[in-house]
UniProtKB/TrEMBL annotation:
Organism annotation: Flavobacterium procerum
UniProt keyword list: Cell membrane, Glycosyltransferase, Membrane, Transferase, Transmembrane, Transmembrane helix
Record protein name field: Glycosyltransferase
Keyword Cell wall biogenesis/degradation included in the entry's annotation: no
InterPro entries: Nucleotide-diphossugar_trans
Signal peptide: none
EC number: 2.4.-.-
Intracellular or extracellular location(s): Cell membrane
Length: 480
């Protein structure tokens, strides 16, 4: 059953009086990232043992590298004197200096990044918030309540929730949210499961706002998130899309979310800040993103009918939309002050399936980006966007050569491989650790090392597998 959307100012006023005890406040207080929260939180025995074990491995690796110097020198000479070793070494050296240059460039961009402050209420645009949901259960209820409690003028916001043919009680919880929020939310039910892209497509066509905001149905927003997210559109007329700042909601429930919490801060707050400086954020995340309505409708037919190798695209709808908006010559920005907390997988199976989906989308959309990034797709400087693309391209292109070298290294010199890998993790992950410690706190930052060890030894196969199976369809995590 479809109900009509009518925004009630009176209802908004009544609800605002009790906001101090709202769901959003409770969740964000419990998930606080302040230093005090982390200092006084007792570490679990398992978590502490993992962190300590990680450091033991890295220190052992460093000592092993020191004691095996002669073996390393012999292996290096062996490589140089082989027919394939010298070319590989030259390529690896060039890529190392290239990656170092890219890192320094991104660091320079990050240091100059500043989030755009919220504009005043009278300048805020009308906004349609679309929440697609599939088998999310009560999570969608919490999401809708957090959105309804946003500090955003009630007469300027339209909230749409779309059940994509769920097989659980998602529709029930949408109805419960409807009962609680009344005319402030409109709920829809797809006749059958068609995929997230089609649920969003329905929302786009029903939306009346100047700005479209998409929010995943297992996410919670802060009160000021929406106004911060859409403010760049009012300041920059060339802004076509804005990416939100995604943090982990369930980081207290399991070890993997703890690791991902640190990883997300690095990938969002560092990388997307740098990308935003050149107006070329490569992906507006499904958890929280905003789009200018005109930009969406300029590419909507192409987006909904997108195919890859003759098959309809049922993944990567966020990255595809970002690409198509960049291709229009518009800017895609990042708002660090627009925070959303989202649930991430808590077990290995859920995590690798999520990463496979992301990696396949990355392969597909890098191919799509290659078709326009070296053309005159925007009037402003295109150097930053091209450097970001090349960095992604080289990572994909060198996946198999480095994988083969890794297997060769393990087979010939396993001790050298293990010791150099642990030392490398110690060195390279220190930046992530320091970045998180500076932005938030020290105690949780050490998960950066554990995550790197975990990824290196248990998820290294994701990228090569995703490249080989890039044409495969399927969301993968929907049945979990």
């Amino acid at each position: 059953m479809e109900s009509e959307t009518i925004i009630s100012d009176q209802f908004y006023t009544a609800k605002s009086a009790v906001r101090t005890d709202s769901l959003t406040n409770k969740i964000f207080n419990s998930q606080s990232t302040s230093s005090k929260a982390f200092v006084h939180r007792p570490a679990s025995k398992l978590g502490l043992s993992i962190v300590v074990g990680t450091f033991a491995l890295m220190i052992a690796g460093a000592f092993s590298v020191y004691h095996l110097q002669e073996d390393f020198e012999a292996f290096q000479m062996e490589r140089i004197n082989s027919s394939w070793g010298l070319p590989f070494l030259i390529i690896a050296t060039l890529l190392f200096f290239y990656q170092t240059g890219v890192f320094l460039y991104n660091s320079y961009l990050y240091l100059g990044y500043k989030a755009i402050p919220s504009v005043s209420d009278d300048l805020l645009p009308t906004c349609t918030v679309i929440v697609p949901a599939y088998n999310e259960g009560k999570l969608v209820y919490n999401t809708l309540l957090s959105l309804a409690e946003s500090d955003y003028p009630a007469h300027k916001i339209q909230l749409l929730a779309i059940d994509d043919g769920s097989k659980d009680d998602t529709w029930y919880w949408m109805q419960e949210a409807k009962k609680k929020l009344g005319d402030r939310v409109t709920i829809f039910q797809q006749p059958k499961n068609q995929g997230k892209r089609h649920a969003l497509y329905r929302g786009f066509n029903l939306g009346t706002g100047e700005i479209f905001v998409t929010v995943d149905s297992d996410s919670i927003v802060k009160k000021d998130t929406l106004r911060n997210l859409v403010s760049p559109f009012m300041v920059n007329e060339k802004c076509g899309a804005v990416a939100g700042n995604v943090q982990v909601l369930n980081n207290e429930k399991a070890i993997l979310p703890k690791m991902l919490n640190v990883s997300f801060v690095m990938s969002f707050e560092f990388m997307r800040s740098a990308e935003s400086r050149v107006g070329s954020v490569l992906c507006t995340p499904g958890a929280l993103a905003a789009y200018r309505k005109d930009a969406v409708f300029n590419c909507l037919p192409e987006w909904i009918n997108q195919t890859f190798m003759g098959q309809p695209s049922d993944i990567g709808e966020d990255r595809a939309m970002t690409n198509m908006i960049l291709k229009q010559g518009l800017h895609v920005l990042f708002q660090r002050n627009a925070v959303v907390l989202t649930n991430v997988p808590e077990d290995y199976k859920g995590l690798y399936k999520m990463f496979i989906r992301w990696s396949r989308s990355n392969v597909r959309e890098n191919l799509a980006m290659a078709k326009f990034v070296f053309k005159n797709f925007r009037k402003e400087s295109k150097v930053g966007a091209r450097l970001l693309f090349l960095n992604q391209f080289f990572k994909i292109a060198m996946t198999y050569p480095f994988l083969l070298f890794m297997f060769f290294f393990i087979a010939v010199h396993p001790a050298l491989f293990l010791s150099s890998t642990f030392l490398g993790i110690l060195i390279l992950s220190t930046f992530s650790m320091i970045f998180y410690a500076k932005r938030y706190n020290l105690s949780e930052s050490f998960w950066a090392y554990s995550y790197s060890v975990f990824y290196t030894f248990s998820l290294f196969w994701i990228a090569p597998y995703a490249i080989a199976t890039a044409s495969k369809r399927g969301w993968l995590t929907r049945g979990l």
